[in-house]
Amino acid sequence: MSVSPPPARPGAIGHRMVLVTGPSGAGRSTALASLEDQGFEAIDNLPLSLIPRLLEGPPPAAPLALGVDTRNRDFSTRALQELVTDLRADPRVQSELLYLDCAAEVLLRRFSETRRRHPMAPAESPVEGVSRELDLLAPIRNMADLLIDTSELTPHELRGELAHWFGQQGGVRLAVSVHSFSYKRGLPSGVDMVFDCRFLRNPYWEPSLRALNGESAPVADYVQADPRYQPFFDKVLDLIELLLPAYQEEGKSHFSIAFGCTGGQHRSVTVVENLCGALAKNGWRVSKRHREIERRARSGTASMTGNTA
Questions:
Q1: What is the per-residue pLDDT for 10?
Q2: What is the pLDDT of residues 197-207, one digit of tens each?
Q3: Do 247 and 203 share a structural domain?
Q4: Nearest-angstrom CA–CA distance, 68 and 99
């Protein structure tokens, strides 16, 4: 994956601070360790009231990654909202809020596997704790600069995502990520723009193409032969290249685009491959993710079942 750090806000003089938060079990400890490996100074569970004091004096030699969650001594939703708002308005700091999201059922499974008590329900079932924490953090999730859904990510894959977003400290260009997905499994979390590719003709119904995916030339040729493909692709590319500079000027550091089809294997994959190539050729830092192909690779599934085009 390519990496693009966020542009500094006007007037920022050198502090860089990433607040890492999200529900318990979503991967915050893994994220902090990964950021530390990438040159950040990682501090976990610092009281919220002490965080502004880190801005006193000259900028630190390394950027800061601060773990914040409901176990912080003085945590409250309002206090964290006010802290994020104040940091964004402070000209001394370039701050970002990284929210690690995760589906409730996955969080429950993780707590069950580790036999840990949930910090918000130490004497009750983790079900109550997960529900309470997700409700408590919902306003914080809405404020996130970057949201990463860890529901289907291994720790290694989460580290890869963080390396993409935070690994290089030079440069100021907007980082663009492009995803393919299956509508049968729902929209990916945290994307800024979604396009539906299900109107394109479906390679699934060609027996010779069914077991392939949109990364292969035969499937790509089949999809691109649809007379509607090229006008669609050209208009989407024009729209995205119109918007990206505007988002960059606005100070947005990450922009995610998703393309979906029925099974996330053929049509959406072809479009993502071609769009990433076009954006990279035009000078954008771009990464791609094929959610369903990655999921199948993790499960070791060798053949498709059902209509997964």
A1: 40
A2: 999 999 999 99
A3: yes
A4: 10
